[in-house]
Design a protein that fits this description.
Layout (H helix, E strand, L loop, with lengths): L10 E2 L3 E5 L5 H8 L2 H4 L11 H16 L3 E8 L5 E10 L4 E8 L8 H16 L4 E7 L3 H10 L2 E10 L4 E11 H4 L3 H4 L12 E9 L6 E5 L10 E2 L2 E3 L6 H13 L9 E9 L4 E9 L14 E4 L14 H10 L1
Parallel strand pairs: 5-6, 9-14
Antiparallel strand pairs: 1-2, 2-3, 3-4, 4-5, 6-8, 7-8, 9-12, 10-11, 10-15, 13-14
Helix pairs in contact: 1-3, 4-5
The protein binds 8-OXO-2'-deoxyguanosine-5'-triphosphate.
C-alpha cells in the first residue's frame, strides 16, 4: 500500500514525532532491531531478523492503520527525523481494549524515550479510540520495561506466560494495565478552583447543556487528550467561574468551544447531576437548548456527535451523566 494511503496525523511529544513507518525506514529499523539486546525483549521479533522482514512489516503497518486495527509507529527525532525505535498499539474490539508495545534501539537507550513515546500513544488512544483500557506485558527478566510502564502510569495486575519468537518458546511475563484514571493528568489540574469544604470533598460546579437540533438529536462532545476522563463523551459545558451564574458560564463556554451564541432565555433548566468523584463532588445543572445563533463548530479540536436519544447509551460517558442520559431519553 502506498504511503499516501495512511492518513494518521503524527503525534508530537517534546522530543519526538510518532508517525507511520515508511519504506525508507526499513534499513535503519533493521539495523536497530536486529540486535539481540533488543530482539530478546520482543515477543513477535525473530532473531536474527531478516532484512526482508523489515519491508514486509512496514507495509503491513500501513494497512493495519488504514483498517483502524493497529497503530505501529516510528519514534522519530523531531529535529532530524532519525528513527530511534517503534511503539505500537493493537486493538481488541470485542473487549474495548488495546495492547501496547515499544522498543528503542540500543544506541538511544538511557534518554527516557520509551516512557515519552509510549505514554503519549497510550494517552492518545484512550482519548481517541473507543477503548477503556490498555494492557502491556514485560518479560520477568526485563526490569527496565516494567519501570517504563510504571512511569507511564500502568498498574501491575498479575503474571502469565507468552510465546517469544526470539527465545523459541513460552516465557514468564508480568502483566500491566492502565485505564483513564491511571493516565489522567495530575489531580491538581482536575480541580482548579473548588469551593472550600472543611472535612469533605470540594464541590465542583459545572454547567452543561443538551443542545437539541431540529431532528431531535442531542450534541455530545468528546473530552480531548490531556483532560481527565479523556475520550468519554459529554454534554458541552464547563466549570462555573467564581462570581458567574451557571447560565453565564454556559453562554461563555458555548461561544469558546462551539462558536455559537446562546441567550439566557433559550436555556431551559432540565435536571442536575450530583456525583462523587474521587477528588471532588460534582454538581452539574443540565439545561436544554433548541435555539442558538451560528454553526456548531469544534473550536478546540474536539470530536462532536449529534446523537439520537435512543443511541445515547452507546456512547461511553462520565459516570455522573448516566442518570441524565436516562432522563433525557425518556423526555425526548
Ligand atoms: N462539560 C461537562 N463536564 C462533565 C460532564 N460530566 C462530568 O462528569 N463532567 C465533569 C468532567 C470535569 O471533571 C468537569 C468539567 O470540567 P472541565 O475541565 O471539562 O471544564 P472546563 O471546560 O471548564 O475545562 P478547563 O477550561 O478547566 O480545561 O465536569 C458533562 O456531561 N459535561
Amino acid at each position: 500500500m502506498p504511503d499516501s494511503a495512511v492518513t494518521f496525523a503524527p503525534l508530537e511529544t517534546a522530543r519526538f514525532l510518532l508517525r507511520p513507518l515508511r519504506a525508507g525506514d526499513a534499513a535503519e529499523l533493521h539495523r536497530l532491531v536486529n540486535d539481540w539486546e533488543v530482539a530478546k525483549t520482543l515477543a513477535r521479533v525473530p532473531f536474527p531478523y531478516p532484512r526482508d522482514l523489515a519491508d514486509e512489516w512496514i507495509a503491513s503497518t500501513a494497512e493495519r492503520i488504514a483498517a483502524n486495527e493497529a497503530y505501529h509507529l516510528a519514534i522519530a527525532r523531531r529535529e532530524d527525523d532519525v528513527l530511534v525505535g517503534c511503539c505500537g498499539l493493537t486493538r481488541d474490539r470485542e473487549d474495548r481494549s488495546a495492547e501496547l508495545g515499544y522498543w528503542v534501539g540500543r544506541r538511544h537507550w538511557g534518554q527516557g524515550i520509551a516512557p515519552e513515546a509510549a505514554g503519549r500513544l497510550a494517552r492518545w488512544a484512550l482519548a481517541n479510540l473507543d477503548i477503556d483500557r490498555i494492557t502491556a506485558s514485560a518479560l520477568v527478566d526485563n526490569a527496565r520495561s516494567a519501570t517504563v510502564l510504571a512511569r507511564i502510569g500502568f498498574r501491575e495486575t498479575g503474571t502469565g506466560a507468552q510465546d517469544f519468537l526470539s527465545r523459541g518458546g513460552a516465557m514468564p511475563v508480568r502483566i500491566f494495565e492502565a485505564g483513564r484514571a491511571d493516565l489522567a493528568p495530575a489531580p491538581a489540574a482536575a480541580v482548579p478552583s473548588p469551593e472550600p469544604a472543611p472535612g469533605g470533598k470540594p464541590i465542583l460546579l459545572v454547567a452543561a447543556v443538551g443542545l437539541i437540533d431540529p431532528d431531535n438529536r442531542v450534541l455530545l462532545a468528546r473530552r480531548p487528550e490531556g483532560k481527565p476522563m479523556a475520550g468519554l463523551w459529554e454534554f458541552p459545558g464547563g466549570k462555573v467561574h467564581p462570581g458567574e451564574t451557571p447560565e453565564a458560564a454556559l453562554i461563555r463556554e458555548l461561544k469558546e468551544e462551539l462558536g455559537i451564541d446562546v441567550t439566557e432565555a433559550c436555556l431551559a433548566p432540565f435536571a442536575f447531576a450530583s456525583h462523587g468523584y474521587e477528588r471532588f463532588h460534582l454538581l452539574m445543572p443540565l439545561f436544554l437548548c433548541r435555539r442558538w445563533q451560528g454553526a456548531v463548530t469544534p473550536l478546540e479540536g474536539q470530536a462532536l456527535a449529534w446523537v439520537r436519544p435512543q443511541k445515547l447509551a452507546e456512547y461511553a460517558m462520565p459516570p455522573a451523566d448516566v442518570p441524565l442520559v436516562a432522563l433525557l431519553r425518556d423526555f425526548l
